[in-house]
C-alpha cells in the first residue's frame, strides 16, 4: 500500500467514524423523544427503566466514538503533514498517467 492509498483509507475511516458518531447522536435523540412521550402520558415503568438504560449505554458508546474519532483524525492529519510531498507526487504521477 503506497502513501496515497494509506491516506485515502485513513480518510475513509474518518468519514465512517463521523457517520457512526452521527448515527449514535440520532439514536440518543430518538430515545429521548420516546422518553418524553412516555413521561407525558403513559408513565410506563418498563419503558422508563429500559429506555433510560439504553440511553446511558448509547451515550457511553458515543463518548468512546468521539474519543476514537478525535484520536484517529489527529493521526490522519499528522500522517498527511509528514507525507504530504509523497502523497502529492503520487497524485501528480497518477494524473499524468491518466492524461496519457
Structure explained in plain terms:
With 100 residues, this protein is mainly alpha-helical. The chain has one domain. 95% of the residues lie in helices and 0% in strands. It has helices spanning 3-42, 45-99. Helix 1 packs antiparallel against helix 2 (45-99). The radius of gyration is 21 Å and the shape is elongated.
What string, H for helix and E for strand, traces the elements in order?
Answer: HH
Query: How many domains is the backbone divided into?
Result: 1
- Tell me the number of helical segments per DSSP (H or I, 4 or more residues long): 2
Determine the N-to-C terminus distance: 24 Å
Number of strands: 0
Q: What portion of the residues fall into strands of 2 or more residues?
A: under 5%
Cα shape: elongated
Topology:
Blueprint: H1 3-42, H2 45-99
Helix pairs in contact: 1-2
